[in-house]
Amino acid sequence: MEGSAAKKKPAYGQQKKDCSKDEIVQPRKLNGTSAEVPSYHNLHRELLLSHKRGLLLEEKPELKRVLEQRRLELHKEEEMAQRRPSDLEMELRKRQQKLEEYEQEEIKRRENQQKIPEFVRVKDNLRRTQTFEQ
Questions:
Q1: If you placed Cys at 85, which of 59, 77, 89, 124 could pair as Cys (CB 3.0 to 4.6 Å)?
Q2: Which residues contact 34 (CB under 8 A, 6 or more apart)?
Q3: C-alpha distances in angstroms, 24 versus 6, 17, 80?
């Protein structure tokens, strides 16, 4: 039965005794691959998820962000000033001017009424009521 007995295979990692070191090809590590760091994929996935959620810290400091925002606002204001106002904007400005003029006239009228002595105002009110009754 010795001839029929199965040959024992060497355990994983054990080398055959009859092979020299030169004949055995050893795998070599590739530089810069994710195989070197098993958690590379996990870190990359976590960075992608946090970027999608917006959890990453801003790269710019607050001062730069504020200055950039002000610059953008000034740029928008300059563009608005350069473009021709629409018909709606022109109509709204006209109405606003009319309202302001009316308010100014109303203020002047009230000031003038306060300058008139009280007895003259009462007399005018009496005349009005008499003319309405007739």
A1: 89
A2: 40, 41
A3: 24, 11, 76
CA 28, CA 6: separation in Å to the nearest integer? 33
Place of tokens 């563009």: 79
The Cα–Cα gap between 51 and 118 comes to: 75
Average pLDDT over residues 65-69: 89
- For the whole prediction, is pTM greater than 0.70? no
Answer whether 35's CB lies under 8 Å from 29's CB.
yes
Q: With helix as H, strand as E and coil as C, how does the chain read?
A: CCCCCCCCCCCCCCCCCCCCCCCCCCCCCCCCCCCCCCCHHHHHHHHHHHHHHCCCCCCCCHHHHHHHHHHHHHHHHHHHHHCCCCHHHHHHHHHHHHHHHHHHHHHHHHHHHHHCCHHHHHHHHHHHHHHHHC
pLDDT at 112: 86
